[in-house]
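We modelled the chain as a single entity of 223 amino acids. Its sequence is:
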Amino acid sequence: MAFNKSGSRYSKKIDPVSIFVAYEGIKDEKEYFEALKFSVPKQFEKLISLIPVEKSSTASAPSKVLEDLDNYIKANKVNLNDSNKGFIVIDRDKWDDTTHKRGLQDTIQKCKQKGIVLLCSAPSFDLWLLCHYKDVSSESTEYKAKAKANLKSGSKKTFLKSELSKYKNEGMDILIKKTINAINNSVKLNDYDEVVNVVPDKLFTNVFVILNELLKNNVPIGE
């Protein structure tokens, strides 16, 4: 049994947790994970750290996202374990042809070998952001088909970006306050929730797995 400085006993030491996240996009993901990082209340900073890994280039291939995380943890002498958790966050939309699918499957296997969790949004990270505002699973079949195709409109925005633009006056700080909505709404889209073993061929996002890491450590995200 361990003792704290005051002499009282406690049954389990709480080790600090670090969460390392590398991501595909150069703008939206960066803004989101930076805002999420700064949303962790100061009293939790010594218990849990969210560390967005800067992109080394504009390359968006899953293999490059994995490389960014791999290089970061090697440079900082991080061993991934229960206290140091690594994630990469990618999109589905660019990986439809055979060559890219093969590359993504290779990345999935390497993540398994390295103890890195691969998270995916299909068709794009915008779906995760949109889940903060609406339950896409309850929308019409036509709406969901448009969301899955995610084609560009006359405004040169994809369908999901056009939907997100309806909430453009709400910044990332306000969006993060809707985290529980996003978790609940994204879970409704998914038949499975944590591990991507294949390329999802449907509306899907499991970015909420990172949020669950914060919540299970009692971090009051969005409060």
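As a brief sanity check on the tokenised model: The chain has nine helices and seven strands. The mean pLDDT is 86.
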